[in-house]
Write a structure and sequence with these properties.
Protein name: Signal transduction histidine kinase CheA
Structural class: alpha/beta
Number of helices: 16
Distance between the termini: 44 Å
InterPro entries: LipA_acyltrans
EC number: 2.7.3.-
Shape: elongated
Number of domains: 2
Oligomer: single chain
Subcellular location: Cell inner membrane
Strand content: 5-15%
Radius of gyration: 25 Å
Enzyme class: transferase
Length: 423
Amino acid sequence: MTTAAADEANAPPFMTDFRADPETAAAWLRDADEAALRPYQLDLAHLNLVSVFGGEWSPERVRATAVECTRAGLWGSWEHKAFLTRHCDRFSAAGPDEWPRLCPQENRLRGWEAAPAALRDGPAILCSFHYGAFRFLASDLVMAGRHVTQPMGGPPYTMMASLLDGYRGPLADRFRIVSVDDDATGLFQMARALRKGEVVVVFVDGNRGIGGCWNEAGRVPLDFLGCPVRVKSGVARLAATLGVPLVPVLVPRGEDGTGTVHFEPVIDPGRRLAGDEEKEFVARAMAGMYAAFEREVRARPEQWEGSSFMHQWRVPANAGAEASTPPSELDRCLEAGGRLRTDPTRVVALSGTSSPVWTDVHTLKSFAAPEWAAEAFDRLSSERGIDRGWLAERAPDPLHRSKLLDLISRLVARRAVVVLEAA
């Protein structure tokens, strides 16, 4: 489930009231702690940020960035729904003769004056990512007079369809949503829009489409933030098949929260392509778009809302050979003043389960704590870890101590737990 689709049942009432005071929503998000944010995919954002930045950043910076990404997702979702609600109220009360006057007042992004000709005049696929103020791309284009089709899936599609039901205004006349969960129909409608000279807005990292986000169909291998990934390439294949340009754009927010469109060079097939030419174009287009996205994420990682679902397209690493560390060696280390704890660059503890669950961010394999070892798992996940004193107090029985050290020995072999020798 994405951030935008997170369960809103436990959210404060104003988070589902899109006519509420924006400052009330912003203030709640600023003050929300990790416990309040955890239902909105905080753990998954943390897991994925550890996988790409764990070797470069401190654990504290990684965790803080995951919190900011989660806040960004919640704010972006609420802000956009509030804008659409007020927009529909405003235009439904106005007559069509007033729309030309009202449309320029509805623009939410800066930088459109730099839009390439391909986006202004003809059919084009505007490609962005779940980053910054990306949600306003389609509505800004509609307010500028373009006809726009946008694929959506799951709750965002349902919400948008409900909001536009019975609405009178430019979004009703010039904006069409298609379901990515209805593979053949959605693709046909996007192709039809492009043949009519319209704009299709796609978020490339959604990796939905035919077969869903876990299906391997149509994926191409890339490197992203130092990790091997396999990403859906349907948007580039559609451009090649129809001979229409891809217009990559990123929308970082400034200090005032307003997004600015940053256009990357247009990727134009020039004509309809097939065979090896199509394959080459698709590989080049996807690599170019993700390279631009990587630069932006490195510059402003706290705006990366899509960090909560990168694991859906990252290639897990092989576990590798296990290095045996006998329980007796762990016991010797503890007696010498050492400690045992999880490797914060590799293991993330997931919440929401009755017993502790760890995930290896490299292999994406999880370890569930046996009930009898739940307290030890919690302690291993802490900064202090397990030392001689804790083990003597919590596992005084020799059999329990031996059983616990045997389990930890296997976790060390899997590189989930590290041995910290005494200073």
